[in-house]
Amino acid sequence: MYFLKKASIIIIGSVFLSLGINLFLTPYKILDGGIVGLALILNYLYNLKVGLMIIILSMPIFIVAWFRYRTYFYNSLHGLLLSSFTIDLLKPFRSLIDISAVFSSILGGIFVGIGIGLMLRYRTSTGGTDLVAQFVSVKTGVNVGIVIFMIDIIVILLGGVLISAHTLLLSIITLLVVGITTSLITRKIVHT
User: Fold this and answer.
1) Tens digit of pLDDT for each residue in 32-52?
2) Residues 40, 42, 48, 51: is their CA dihedral positive or negative?
3) What span, in angstroms and rounded, lies between the C-alpha atoms of 3 and 166?
4) Is the separation of the CB atoms in 156 and 33 below 8 Å?
5) Which letter does DSSP use for residue 184 in this model?
6) Using 50, 70 and 90 to split pLDDT, how confident is the model at 72?
7) What is the full DSSP assignment across 122-171?
8) What is the pTM of this model?
9) What are the two backbone dihedrals, phi and then psi, of residue 123, each rounded to the nearest 5 degrees?
10) How would you label 162-190 residue by residue, b for 16+ Cβ within 10 Å and e otherwise?
11) Contact 127, 59 (CB under 8 A)
């Protein structure tokens, strides 16, 4: 029963994450942090597929996880692959909603935060810095949402430099909303 629930959560989390990125972030070149943010930067600068870039950028982290944190590797591989595939699959939805950039950054942050938070509650993730944040959270006891937030700040500052100040400002809003939403959802992580 737990396996079916976890599989359902991964699918639902991947859809929330994908819709957050495609409906709300990419139309205004807004960034999330971490590996997703780096993949979005590559998409905005070079038109590379976001999901594919997430997989490629996550490879070094997954290699380390294979040797040092095998449980996390197995728990997150399916989250990484499914969410990355879903992000690229739902790309046609990018022009479906037309709202202001500020509201888009807020709603995008809520959707992405829900997607990440749901997966983290069931000890899976999209990989990348979510996986790194899980490692740090287990070792330090710091809430995983806070760890993700700290890593994300670095990524959006990079995006602000490479893309625009407007991107930076909208991404700060998104980052705050993602961090708050993820923290609220992961307050009590389910252990197996």
Assistant:
1) 989 999 999 999 999 999 999
2) negative
3) 42
4) yes
5) H
6) confident
7) TT---SHHHHHHHHHHHHH---HHHHHHHHHHHHHHHHHHHT-HHHHHHH
8) 0.88
9) 55, 40
10) ebeeebbebbbbbbbbbbebbbebbeebe
11) no
Q: Which residue has the tokens 């699959």?
A: 89
DSSP letter for each residue of 50-107: HHHHHHHHHHHHHHHHHHH-HHHHHHHHHHHHHHHHHHHHTGGGGGS----HHHHHHH
Structure token pair of residue 65: 């996880």
Structure tokens at 124: 């899976």
What type of residue sits at position 71?
Answer: T
pLDDT in the model for residue 74: 84
Share of the chain above pLDDT 70, in %: 96
User: pLDDT tens digits for 132-175?
Assistant: 777 788 889 888 778 877 888 899 999 999 999 999 999 999 99
How far apart CA 17 and CA 36 sit, in angstroms, is 10
